[in-house]
Amino acid sequence: MAEVIIRKARREDCVAIIALIQELADFEKMSDGPKLDCKTLERDGFDGQPLFFCNVATFNEKVIGYALFFYAYSTWCGKAMFLEDLYVTPEFRGKHIGIRLLKSVAKEAIENGCCKMEFMVLKWNPATEFYKKYGASDLTVTENWHYYRFSDLKRLVSECE
């Protein structure tokens, strides 16, 4: 019987990862959100100095989940890890694949001297309970942090001149 394997993503996994990114966006009710194409994902993750890293879960050699992450820097403690996405296809949920992917990222963070791992999750997402179960803190509640974004960088620059 086949087993689920967690491994580092390879360039040839990018088509499947893009499909799972869209599945996640659909689940998050943001179907029009992803603007990333496969060539960009390949370039940014596998050419030169990668901008992100990714671990995948496979079953019968099919990618059924992924964790995409990158290094960040904290002025409070130094090198840190940011978990951008963690997703497992619905038919494989409840089989401990999500925690295996999460632990694979945490292990990489530890091995590379990271002081913490941070991520965001939508307030309504049932995954909040998954993360809390394993010890994650909701910084909006515990420390009153709010996460902001500038999406129109050109506007920001023009208004600051």
UniProtKB/TrEMBL annotation:
Kindly give the Pfam families that the UniProt entry links to this protein: Acetyltransf_1
Keywords associated with the record = Acyltransferase, Transferase
Q: Which Gene3D superfamilies match?
A: 3.40.630.30
Q: What residue stretches are annotated with the N-acetyltransferase domain?
A: 4-157
* Membrane-spanning segments: none
Q: GO: which molecular function terms? A: N-acetyltransferase activity
The answer, when asked if Acyltransferase is one of the entry's keywords, is yes
Provide the family line. Belongs to the acetyltransferase family.
Q: What is this protein called?
A: Diamine acetyltransferase
Which species expresses this protein natively?
Ooceraea biroi
